[in-house]
Design goal:
- With 184 residues, this protein is mainly beta.
- It has one domain: Jelly Rolls, CATH 2.60.120.10.
- It contains one helix and 13 strands.
- The strands form three sheets. Strands 1-2-10-7-12-5 form a six-stranded antiparallel β-sheet, with no helix packed on it.
- The longest helix has 4 residues.
- The radius of gyration is 16 Å and the shape is globular.
- The N and C termini lie far apart (37 Å).
Length: 184
């Protein structure tokens, strides 16, 4: 039995995986990452970083972040405590889903993860207090390649499920999509 069940989203190459849980009277075990089993979901790179993101307040938005080439990365994002609305935006001009977004609830109880390919921006809104995410990334963080799209951009028009709570100054000041935006 595979440790993961995959489903395609409406956006090209963006996938949701379900971490299958092996349960017994003690609780459960689930695998967060296995490069061999996740190849069909779009993981073809090594692991360069595993990051943890803790958000204390419900309604907080983080994002929408990405790294520019040649440092673009594949991410697998899992929520291991609490709940988040996880969002990805397709920023690949050659894609038929260019500038479209997709969001899915990730939680400690639903065992879903989002596999975000290169060329996508990523962010989330905490749906609970004390939300903890684990990111597996195919590339190391590079400050020179760091980029983002404003999470409140009306061109993208993400439908955040909760009233917007806290947003960092950095994220609030990310650029909006304009006629000069050429994707990634």
């Amino acid at each position: 039995m595979s440790n993961f069940t995959e489903s395609q989203t409406p956006l090209n190459d963006l996938r949701v995986i379900l971490r299958n849980q092996k349960k017994d009277d003690r609780g459960y075990f689930s695998r967060l990452f296995c490069p061999i089993e996740l190849k069909s979901s779009g993981w073809h790179d090594g692991v360069f970083q595993i990051n943890e993101s803790f958000t204390s307040s419900q309604g907080t938005i983080r994002g929408m972040h990405y790294q520019k080439e040649p440092c673009a990365e594949v991410k697998i994002v899992s929520c291991v405590m609490g709940r988040v609305f996880d969002v990805a935006i397709d920023l690949r001009p050659s894609s038929s889903t260019y500038l479209k977004w997709y969001g899915v609830e990730l939680s400690s109880s639903n065992s879903k993860a989002l596999v975000i390919p290169k060329g996508f921006a990523h962010g989330f809104q905490a749906l609970s207090n004390n939300a903890l995410l684990i990111y597996v990334q195919s590339e190391p963080y590079n400050i020179e390649a760091d980029a983002g799209i404003n999470p409140l951009d009306s061109t993208i028009s993400i439908q955040w499920p909760l009233p917007v709570g806290h947003i960092s100054d950095r994220d609030r000041n990310l650029p909006f999509i304009d006629k000069n935006f050429n994707g990634v």
